[in-house]
Amino acid sequence: MPRLDTREKLAILADAAKYDASCASSGTKKRDSAGGKGIGSTEGMGICHAYAPDGRCISLLKILLTNSCIFDCHYCINRKSSNVRRARFTAEEVVQLTLSFYRRNYIEGLFLSSGIIRSPNYTMEQIVEVARSLREDHDFRGYIHLKTIPDADPELVHKAGLYADRVSINVELPTEQGLKRLAPEKDGARIEGAMKGMKAAIDQGADEKKRFRSAPGFAPAGQSTQMIVGADGASDGDIIKRASTLYDRFALRRVYYSAFSPIPDASAVLPLRRPPLMREHRLYQSDWLMRFYGFKPGEVVAAADDTGMLPLDIDPKLAWALKFRERFPVDVNRAPREMLLRVPGLGVKAVDRIIASRRWRRLRLGDIARLTVSVAKLRPFIVAADWRPTALIDRVDLQQRLKPATEQLELFAA
């Protein structure tokens, strides 16, 4: 096989990394190279697809160390039996690429994952070496996200947290049955054990940092995971319950959902078609309901149909409100914050503005319209000083009235 140059490797391994959804730079501590010390920064504008909590776009070099793998997971395009073009970076090549891209102002950080080569320990050593060299040899202060390998020695996984801002340990599939069927070489108990160990190390690092200013940081942006949606028979309800358990047990910053996509030379046990991308979107919305809107997992699952699937034509909060119409309408001038957060069409910022405004005056429907993007979705679910929905909340066709209109886009529109 001819030897590949760096550009060819980058084309292969950057494309292979697109299946990793868990790529965000939120939550880390601020570092920069002001004063002439070090190189890189976790701040500033970039051109990419990872976003900070304040909405800034952070550019990351997102690649695999290699797309070769000794495992044969049915759903993975880089599995051992897959007929794809293979490539591999050395640790030094990734370091130099990261520094070179940073100096050209292309990136502000690195997201590094890998297939398993030789052994989990050998691969984890290479991943850690990239981060170590960037931090210690080049004083790189930009963002680093490492995808760790749960089968590797715990000490190696721990070292990753010493150099990375965030670490990921993927649970892969929502159910243990699905994991055994589609990735028999992976062990769900071992994956959760690695996540538990990482949580303990993050908690210990945060405690030491509070007591000793000189204590080294440990994964300040926490840990995340990723689940593949649609490769097995798990329903949306199964996925929501699994995500809630992971948040509670391991204090994850994020659970990412990646819609299964049919791959070349796919295994016969996989579905022939990918799930609708809207399903992935609805799962992210349900995730937001649990994390920011005070919904319990059982309440989100209650928005699903009899098969456990969330509706695709309306969002989960609206689906829940339509199922539990007896909770509405809600008086915007009197209702507590937790009930206002359940009103379809009201976001967290809008609710906080309503609570702040109603301290000074009774709010009318026009006031609510100025505090939100659109008041049309709210009207059946709220009471204001000059508005009552009367029988609107009980209409049989309410879902059809509130469902977003289908729009045919023009092919050659300007």
TrEMBL record:
Its cofactor is [4Fe-4S] cluster. Keywords: Iron, Iron-sulfur, Metal-binding, S-adenosyl-L-methionine. GO terms for molecular function: catalytic activity; iron-sulfur cluster binding; metal ion binding. SUPFAM superfamilies: Radical SAM enzymes (SSF102114), RuvA domain 2-like (SSF47781). The keyword Metal-binding applies. PROSITE patterns: RADICAL_SAM. It comes from the Bacteria. InterPro entries: Aldolase_TIM (IPR013785), DNA_rSAM_put (IPR023874), Elp3/MiaA/NifB-like_rSAM (IPR006638), Endo/Exo/Phosphatase_dom_1 (IPR051675), rSAM (IPR007197), rSAM_sf (IPR058240), RuvA_2-like (IPR010994). Residues 53-296 form the Radical SAM core domain. PANTHER family: ENDONUCLEASE/EXONUCLEASE/PHOSPHATASE FAMILY DOMAIN-CONTAINING PROTEIN 1, TYPE II SECRETION SYSTEM PROTEIN K. This is Putative DNA modification/repair radical SAM protein.
